Amino acid sequence: MKLVIQRVQNAKVEVENKVVGNIGRGFLVLIGVTHEDDEEKAKYLAKKLCNLRIFTDENDKMNLSLKDAKGELLIVSQFTLYADCTNGNRPSFVQAAKPDKAEALYEYFCKECQKNDIKVQKGIFGADMKVSLLNDGPVTIIMEK
Question: Going by C-beta distance under 8 Å and a sequence separation of 6 or more, which residues neighbour residue 14?
Fold first, then answer.
């Protein structure tokens, strides 16, 4: 499982010109699922994400977690995180999990994040989404398990 985490001042996701997820200060998280992933990995990464200390404290040090900062999450599924561009110019997505498995783990991951008393907004799995954000920092972290 792979996460691309962007600390944002705000972010939103639209499907067919309708906002389906919208947050203020927090993390925009792009999540990719591969064949070997399971609920144990999803649970581990959800806990790690919610406790990741990349918000600044009063001394301007990255020392506060999403929970400490009372931040929000916008979680968007993105199978293209498992693109393999080794051969040719057209990416292969054979490392991305099949949609049924990926959607189930995506939903499980979102529920695990909610257990941390964090507001969670989501995209729509498999939809053509338009994501916009105001990156804060910029701070972008890649996390894998």
Answer: 20, 129, 130, 131, 132
- Read off the pTM: 0.95
| 86 in active site | no
The structural domains of the chain, with segments of one domain joined by +, span: 2-144
Residue showing tokens 């080794």: 86
pLDDT tens by residue, 79-130: 999 999 999 999 999 999 999 999 999 999 999 999 998 999 999 999 999 9
Tokens standing for residue 63: 């020392």
pLDDT in tens, 23-49: 999 999 999 999 999 999 999 999 999
Encoded tokens for 34? 């591969």
Catalytic residue among 34, 56, 80, 140: 80
Which is the CATH superfamily of the domain at 2-144?
Answer: D-tyrosyl-tRNA(Tyr) deacylase (3.50.80.10)
Report the length, in residues, of the chain: 145
**Is residue 23 a contact partner of residue 69, using CB atoms and an 8 Å limit?**
no
